[in-house]
Amino acid sequence: MTKPSSNRKKATSAVSNNLQATASSAEDTFDPENPASATITVTAAEVEELSETEQRDRLHLERRVERAFFEAGKALAELRDRRLYRSTHKTFEEYCRSRFAYTHRHVNYLIAASNVVDNIIMGTNGSQNEIPDEMGTNGSQILPTTERQVRPLTKLEPSQQQEVWRQAVEQAGGKVPPARIVKDVVQRIMERTKVPNTYQIGEVCQILVKDNPELRGKGGCWGIVNHVGEFSCTVKTWDGEYTVGLQHLKSFSYLPAECEQMRVICDRINRVYSSGLEESVQKFLESLGKLNRGYLTGIEEKLLTVLEFEYVKK
Fold first, then answer.
1. Mean of all residue pLDDT scores within the chain
2. Range of the domain at 215
């Protein structure tokens, strides 16, 4: 028999050592001249089980991760409502951007989501003061674990939020449903109760001029819906009220908190604009009337405050 070359000996030796290391008993056979003929019984890698303490700690930490959005929303709401940012920042929006790198919209999403969770818990005779320590379950109740799961629910009434969530959990087989399932259930309910005009009082919309000469000069302006007709809405803008056909409106899809904030801004601009104005002041207010965001920047807030002081009669 021809002896293997030096390189072949090294390769064969390595294969032999590797196979022997994974063999389960000494009865395994291996022929260095014919590695393919080896009979190997491989032992499965041993998985180290967690102790009871480790298992408990893991569950606790996982639940903390899952309820992070809920805790963040509740904390942000309290920071906003108590104005605990006032010693370092002029506005809540500036504080959130500086302290947490959160956009204005993300903050509103978190706050709105925490309110939805409260409503879901209340739907099973819970109490807002009895929030479960572990998100994901409240007794036999399945609760949301991410903000995106409840985002489609924010525009619904509390009773509708509870019903949609119940149906979504059922469709997910009794588990926490993904955002896709929640959104599908919301869409079906909206289609079932759909009316010709779906706008709501307080909603923020943008005016689209298109081919309507009566709206000339209002293109891009935002307004607050204060009357809903069959095929039109009356919207309040920075300089008055206008009845606009549905084809000339586009919703900004703001959250309820953003809509309320824009209503306040609209009232403030309207009070100043109705006074006698210099041209530069008028142009500034008109620019605020065409914002595509639901808040004022720090400098815009300061300028509007100055104008209110100068032009609004006490």
1. 78
2. 196-314
